[in-house]
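Renewal narrative, Specific Aim 1. Our central claim is that a sequence can be written position by position from structural information alone. The example that follows is taken directly from our test logs and has not been curated for this report. It begins with the structure tokens describing the chain, in the order in which they were read.
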């Protein structure tokens, strides 16, 4: 089967013909129907985040189950599934206390770039091992993933929507529903109008936040944010962000992953406000914040990985909202690309493409 392989950071992805092993016990083989083009993959492609090489990239995807290994019970051949880059074992401390995105299996994936159950790979290129990015590797025609890394998709949800729900939507909407919580009639700012930031805007509209302030440096992205529910747009290249919100905001969601924008989010907070960092930066990146501003104005800075979600609960909830017309995720979609156009998709992403682009293998 064909897949997009990263051989060295900074080099274009190569479309290679790989050997894919059959699923082992507790695993499933999925024919990929759609895979979201996420900036997090780009961090690995540039070397900002480390991984074992060569590796098949892509961590946001959906597809149809073609085969299951021994013991698999939650899905069957023919089912449409969303793939998760944060598996859950159901037994570790974090799973038990309701924080499955912190499951210890995540460390297995990160340290081995294999599948979460045993850290090994099912991919080969001319007999050489090829690794799995985040246990998914969705930039491929087919994948083998752990049963712990899939969620069943209900009838009526298209594959493209199922794909972006597995990362951008659950991260952005989840940051609002799971971290912000009740915010009807209260001010919320979203920094960055990429796929995750736009999903956060949709979550803020769903939750009734008002005003919803969106900051970006691209007017086309800001216009998309307006269409999705933003009530105030700020071009951060042309306007001082802090001056643009003189009364401050109760929450600021940072979806860029840079020190400067996170500092701006904190500066925009009202006393008692909370900045929520969801954007990833390069390894070792840090930011500074005045200590007295945190203490005297009782501001908080918290992180949110994967929308602080419980995917087995939250993804069905998001699919239900989509089917009910309350979360119009079709409006979040950007351009479609063939697998062979993956490098074009990332060129467009880095040059300001609007919405969440999707590869269709």
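The sequence written for that structure reads:
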């Amino acid at each position: 089967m064909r897949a997009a392989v990263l051989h060295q950071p900074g080099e274009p992805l190569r479309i290679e013909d790989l050997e894919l092993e059959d699923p082992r016990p507790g695993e499933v083989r999925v024919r990929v129907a759609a895979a979201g083009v996420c900036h997090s993959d780009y961090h690995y492609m540039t070397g900002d985040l480390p991984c074992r090489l060569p590796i098949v990239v892509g961590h946001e995807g959906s597809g149809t189950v073609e085969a299951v290994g021994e013991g698999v019970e939650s899905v069957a051949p023919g089912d449409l599934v969303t793939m998760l880059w944060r598996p859950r074992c159901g037994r570790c401390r974090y799973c038990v206390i309701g924080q499955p995105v912190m499951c210890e299996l995540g460390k297995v994936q990160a340290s081995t770039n294999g599948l979460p159950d045993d850290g090994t790979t099912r991919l080969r290129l001319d007999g050489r091992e090829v690794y799995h990015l985040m246990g998914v590797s969705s930039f491929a025609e087919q994948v083998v993933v752990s049963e712990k890394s899939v969620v069943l998709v209900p009838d009526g949800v298209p594959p493209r929507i199922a794909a972006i729900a597995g990362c951008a939507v659950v991260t952005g909407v989840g940051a609002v529903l799971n971290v912000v919580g009740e915010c009807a009639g209260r001010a919320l700012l979203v920094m960055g109008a990429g796929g995750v930031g736009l999903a956060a805007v949709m979550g803020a509209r769903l939750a009734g936040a008002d005003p919803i302030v969106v900051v970006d440096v691209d007017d086309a992205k800001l216009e998309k944010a307006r269409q999705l529910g933003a009530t105030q747009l700020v071009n951060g290249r042309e306007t001082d962000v802090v001056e643009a919100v003189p009364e401050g905001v109760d929450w600021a969601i940072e979806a860029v992953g840079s020190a400067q924008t996170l500092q701006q989010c904190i500066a925009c907070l009202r006393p008692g406000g909370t900045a929520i960092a969801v954007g990833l930066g390069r390894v070792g990146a840090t930011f500074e914040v005045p200590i007295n501003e945190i203490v005297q104005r009782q501001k908080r800075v918290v992180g949110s990985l994967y929308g602080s979600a419980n995917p087995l609960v939250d993804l069905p909830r998001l699919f239900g909202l989509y089917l009910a017309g309350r979360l119009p995720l079709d409006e979040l979609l950007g351009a479609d690309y063939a697998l062979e156009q993956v490098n074009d998709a990332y060129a467009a992403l880095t040059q300001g493409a609007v919405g969440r682009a999707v590869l269709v293998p």
